[in-house]
Amino acid sequence: MVAGWSPVEYTERKMSLVMHLAGFIPSAYFTIFHLLFGITWFGLIVLPCTLAVLISLFLLFNQPESQRYKTADMWFLLLAIPPVLVALTQSQMHGQYFVPALILACFIHLPLYVAERLVFAVSLAAIILGMQHLGLHQGLRFTLGVIASHIFAWGLARVLVKQNIELKELAFMDSLTRCYNRRALFDELQKAQQQYKRSKIHCSLIMLDLDHFKQINDQHGHPLGDQILLWFSGFLQQHTRVNDRVFRYGGEEFIILLHDAEFDMAYQTSEKLLAELINQPAPKELKVSFSAGIASFNGKESIDDWLERADQALYQAKQAGRQQTWPKQITTLKQS
Known about the structure:
Layout: H1 7-36, H2 40-62, H3 69-88, H4 99-109, H5 112-133, H6 136-172, H7 182-199, E1 203-210, H8 213-220, H9 222-238, E2 245-250, E3 253-259, H10 263-278, E4 290-296, H11 303-319, E5 325-326
Parallel strand pairs: 4-5
Antiparallel strand pairs: 1-3, 1-4, 2-3
């Protein structure tokens, strides 16, 4: 498992590998056999499936940070539909044995809303072709098998979708505050970098640290400290824009990623948040404030350097007396 993979991504890659290992053997066999010894036109129909499997396997093993293998997965499944349905019309190809596997693979590897519509059409076409070419009794048995496979695969897909949502929450959400966590932060910062390179859309970070939080824990206990963190995270999420993201960076440190925002907007946002926070009583009527450091992405730096600038600005805010935002002016922000 690659260090950057989330549990969801690891599971998806593993399932993709299993599908291709199961699909490669029959695809390669039918391609080679029919091109050399059998029905040439059928071999040509299966050949794109084999190529899609090989491309996806190449992407899985050689581009561990890329999601491009999913596109190859989709093309493999779409390309597999015609030969499976055609095989139903040929008595010696036994296409009925591949329909349940195709139904299951589509439900597992395609988005559910796409799979529901596509598999319904495939199942209906398979039933019609099966009844026409397999005979009445075998056609009825095949129809019952297709219906059973469809219902089972659909139910399994819905369970997997629910589990994936839960896994994503575990992987990307902080269990206490329900903010995004550090893993999600680095994913979002990478997206922000790519967005800037493509469209020159600016992004800014606000790194916040609750002032004197250790004293709250020491004087009132950690349970109240946890309540303060939960309350503060809710405050941040309620007072930021829909497309902005709030992350718990660690302990009492939080980060707000402001999309389509340069330094001035980030500074105004931080000061507005601070002014509103001071006037809102925290749990047990405690007064809470924060110090903040701002760093706008300059288009050249790495993610670590971007975070380091925000951290240094936060340090300056603390050194200057806390309960304030740094840098104070855009001219003090180094963009070199």
